[in-house]
Amino acid sequence: MKWHHVAGNWPAFYEAIIERWPDVDEAELDEIDGDQRGFLRYIAEIEGLEPEEAREEVREWLAGEIPADVVMDESHDNISIRNSAKYVGEGEDEYDDDARFGDDDEDGETG
Predict the structure, then answer these.
(1) How do residues 2-25 score in pLDDT, each as one tens digit?
(2) Rounded CA separation 85/92 (Å)
(3) How is domain 3-69 classified at the architecture level of CATH?
């Protein structure tokens, strides 16, 4: 994953950040608000690391997959739908009814 994934979904990453760095405080994460330099300074501080060591730890963490709870976040769904437009045929709309896939309610409302 890239830092823009983290910064763009900052609160959704709290659980993954705390899992990796258990001494992290959520109030401090609120203050950092997705700022990469601030996050690196904070990790160096709480882990007792040199800045380059903290940068390497964060780099290794970013090499992993985006956590499932972030992928399942509603805002991520909307981005995925918009990005799918490049695969939708001409004259069709990525937001059109998709009843043929079986996930629309029987009364015609989507849920």
Answers:
(1) 898 899 889 889 999 999 999 999
(2) 9
(3) Orthogonal Bundle (1.10)
